[in-house]
Write a structure and sequence with these properties.
66% helix, disordered N terminus, single chain
């Protein structure tokens, strides 16, 4: 058995080298195209960001005034509320699916850090709303659903939002609403999009 180890390793190395050479035969054109696009993007002048579709936080629509029987969950609500209230005072943008190169092409490299910060705030906002909805779902499912539906409307790609909302729709016989979730998934071919599809499909089993 030990005599087979060396030939196996040699064969594995040969296969790896063959695949690397095969992939590299296409790399020069791809790399050149990418670098050329990056050069053009880096030469873009700074654009005005004042008219972008910033996310507005509807604080009065979120059910922060509810009381839960679980004290730990209740304290969590206060924590999530504080985070969301703080985020209501900053700029947020949904930049899901837009690469840094595309951002530089559209708005100039000088705006990239600022735009990235807006996107990070948006992601934090949606994650916090998701956690808030999960926390109140057991005692206030309808209120949780209203929060989840809002998240979907803003273009979230958090799979847990789709899964919990889909669960609610199926449990309440709202099959049409469940099926519409498929149409609302941003970038179905992305990793997050495929995860959402898989979770929705699993709910129907």
């Amino acid at each position: 058995m030990k005599l087979l180890v060396l030939p196996s390793i040699v064969m594995l190395v040969w296969v790896l080298n063959h695949n690397i050479r095969k992939n590299n035969s296409h790399d020069p054109d791809r790399v050149h195209s990418y670098l050329a696009r990056e050069d053009r993007a880096n030469a873009t002048r700074r654009k005005d960001l004042s008219d972008l579709p910033y996310i507005q936080v509807p604080l009065d629509q979120f059910p922060f005034d509810i009381t839960l029987s679980d004290e730990k969950k209740q304290s969590k609500i206060a924590e999530y509320q504080k985070i969301i209230q703080n985020l209501a005072g900053v700029r947020m943008l949904n930049l899901i699916g837009i690469s840094n190169t595309e951002l530089k092409e559209r708005y100039g490299p000088a705006n990239l850090e600022l735009l990235s910060n807006y996107d990070q705030c948006y992601a934090k906002y949606l994650r916090t709303l998701q956690l808030f909805a999960e926390t109140i779902y057991e005692e206030y499912p309808e209120k949780a659903v209203s929060v989840l539906e809002y998240c979907i409307q803003t273009g979230t790609d958090i799979s847990g939002t789709y899964a919990l909302l889909g669960q609610y729709y199926l449990e309440h016989g709202r099959t049409d609403a469940f099926e519409r979730l498929y149409d609302l998934i941003p970038q179905k071919d992305s990793i997050s999009g495929k995860t959402i599809l898989r979770k929705l499909d699993q709910l129907k089993l």
